[in-house]
Amino acid sequence: MLRLKPNLLLKLRRAQTQADLYGFIHAAIQLEHATIPPYLTALYSLKPGTNTAASNIITSIVREEMLHMTIAANLLIALGGRPCFSAPRFVPDYPGPLPMQVDDDLQVGLQPCSKKLLYDTFMRLEQPDKPPKLKLKDGGETDYPDAATGEYPTIGDFYKELLVKLSDMNVTWGPASAQVTQETTGTTWFRETDWFPITSLDDAARAVEVIVTEGEGATASPVDGDGDPAHFYRFGEIYYGAKLIPEGASWSYTGADVPFDESAVFPMTPNAKATMYPVGTRSRLLVDGFNQAYRQLLLGLDSVFNGQQQRLNTTLGLMYQLRILAYEVLTQPDPNSTTGDSTGLTFEYVPLVIV
């Protein structure tokens, strides 16, 4: 469970105008983005042609995190704000707490995929308040990461408070034409039922519901409004080794096997930094190239969400380039390693150099 800083909601409650909400919503955009590099690192670390089921699951989660980031950005645009993806502080410093997160022991880094990573970090990050115990194929029950102690707000609490503020304000909603949607981009990257313009309080409530239920699940069910397992339970499918299926009035991890072979994962150096690799080495060249491509992706998002929606296809196409570059990094031995690790992905902010 991602615990938020306690004073965050107190500050949000003091907001008086639409403009007062911009910083809070931009922080939410940062948070939705901040999960993508760790999830992509785990995905890219799966060797090509292996762990197909696990790869498909993580890919589906990354896609929905991109949707959540899009929804939050559209909400900001609807209220008259402007998203900025390429600002120096937009990219988190891994490992560490995520944006808005209380500085506790939940440190999110960039690591190769493993069941330990799924359980200790990803499932804990996505864990709902009170997940039900579910049956396993071996007859046992699920055990979950230790729940956080103490009273702290969650991302669900944040969005609820945001909706309360919007309902209290006389909001002037911006036009749908300024947002990034299927209509303005001419693309079908996301499901139409989840991806729609926000032009009213009801639209905002529907959009928030998509973000919360796809991450944690509905209050009384592990699936979202589309009937798909929420992210927490989808990561659980890899960890517990079976698909989540309905069983009577409940659900269980007793469906098709989800095999996961940890030997078919690139043994990349975790939480690497470009400065670990001397300038001029192939590792440094590859890491720098990857980070430059990552920056181009962020710059592309800036243009898409600030009036050039038609560039969405081209911008998201850079994700394929990232994957190719990631493979080059992950197949390059780490010159610092004595145990055969490969060079690590870093997802670092690269300043724009004007020549």
CATH superfamily: Ferritin, core subunit, four-helix bundle
Q: Are there runs of 5+ residues with pLDDT below 50, and where?
A: none
CATH class type: Mainly Alpha
CA-atom Rg in angstroms? 20 Å
The outline comes out as globular
Please indicate the count of domains.
1
Portion in helices: 40-55%
Q: How many E strands?
A: 3
Mean pLDDT score = 92
Q: The CATH topology, please?
A: Ferritin
| CATH architecture descriptor name | Up-down Bundle
Task: Tell me what you see in this structure.
This protein has 355 residues and is mostly helical. The chain has one domain (6-263): Ferritin (Up-down Bundle). The protein is built from eleven helices and three strands. It has helices at residues 6-13, 18-34, 36-44, 52-78, 115-126, 155-168, 182-185, 201-216, 231-240, 282-304, 312-330, and strands spanning 135-136, 245-247, 250-253. A three-stranded mixed beta sheet has the order 1-3-2, covered by helices on one side. It is globular, with a radius of gyration of 20 Å. It starts with 5 loop residues before the first helix and ends in a 25-residue tail after the last helix. The mean pLDDT is 92.
